[in-house]
Amino acid sequence: MTSNEYRIRELAYQIWQSEGCPEGQQERHWHMACKLAEAESLAGVQQAKPRKPAATRKAGPAAKSVPVASAANGEMPAKPAVKKPRATRPRPTSP
């Protein structure tokens, strides 16, 4: 058994357990596991590509963070609340 088949078997078993161990779903779990294993291997290949060193990349203008509109209502997100300084009390004087 290859390492890929072993990984697919592990994934299929995890899927089967996560669904509450249903009967008669082996083929569907195996196909789902194959797709997951393929996605994992593709993600590993993409991460393995060497990146250019920072010195050789083109320097562009500094990116500013721009608030993104909420997908639910299209409004801009509220600014985060700023904490107020803690109030201080005078220390009691000893008699």
UniProtKB/TrEMBL annotation:
Q: Where is this region: Disordered?
A: 49-95
Give the matching InterPro entries.
DUF2934 (IPR021327)
Q: Where is the composition biased (Low complexity)?
A: 56-72
A Pfam family it matches: DUF2934
Q: Please identify the protein, giving its name as recorded.
A: DUF2934 domain-containing protein
